[in-house]
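Subject: for your reference before the review

Hello V.,

The reviewers asked for a structural picture of the protein, and I figured it would be easier to keep everything in one thread rather than splitting it across files. Below is the amino acid sequence we used in the manuscript, unchanged from the supplementary table.
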Amino acid sequence: MSLALEVKPFVNSEHTGEYVEIQFPLSSSIAPEKAPKRKSPRKAAKEAAPPVTEEEGEAAAEAAPEAPPTPRFECETIRLHYMEAGFGEPLLLVHTVGQSMYTWRGQFQRLSEYYRVIAVDLVGHGYSQRAMDFSYSMEDHVESLRLLLDALNIQSAHLVGFSIGGMYALEFLRKYPARCGRALVINPGGITQEMPLMIRMMDNALFGGIASRLFGIKTVRTLLEESCFDLTVVTDEVVREYFATACDPGGRRAIQQSIYRYEDEALLAQLRGIDKPVCILHGEEDKWHTMEETKLMRAALPDVVVKTVRNCGHLLHEEKPDKLITAILEHIPVVVE
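And here is what came back from the structure prediction:
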């Protein structure tokens, strides 16, 4: 006897999903430096200053004012938008930069028949808050996912991530192994030279702001078409829905900063330390993340299986939703209570 699940219709709307507040520690927001570090004025002055005698040093120490008190540990309250449905083991869906949970509309309800599915809008994306003190680095995005699980009282979850979101999922596995089970990542990777100029411009300190201001609905259509093998999936409705949550200045800033602050060198160097089962799903026609990159990840991850899906590009889950569901069910066993 089957149990019929009552789930909300999947519409990525601020009136359809739910919200949870997380307290994000500002002191953990460390934006990676991408330009060569310059010598600080203090260090330069110190190196240029004449040598100080021992007597002069003691006199200066006695006259020096007391050290200021240690600043308080501050947090930023961030509202995250998410949708949840189903029962069973938690399954967290992580979209990539520039998307929202809307990208999982072809899988969300069907997966809720087997798992407790949580689809989240990353900070600054979809209908989640456009945080101003959030650095939008990989470290901060991963930390926000951990805080989301805390807020939902979820001790451990399986992860499904797409593209850069897949890299966030792998970093989560590396950093918080006790908080996750298995992971399936779809065409994982960062910014490549094969990506359109608009994306590569956002990864530039000089042109990033200009590129984000030029990010319009025509840009969205172009990006979707270039990342698909089957162009019939790029309808006017899909283009409008993708653009709807990325057209405001705060949303565009979140996209640009997430691209510019993205760094994966540390993660790639430590893939061998991930001991959780990982499945990499690769679109055979993906022009942005090639099979060569996938092979490098396969060689580094200790417990990994790679599956290639024919006749689809980077947006594998948009073009082949049934293939993705089958792969998830094969990789993440359904627990029947």
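For the response letter, the relevant points are probably these. The longest strand covers residues 75-85. The chain has one domain: 77-331.

Happy to draft the paragraph if you're swamped.

O.
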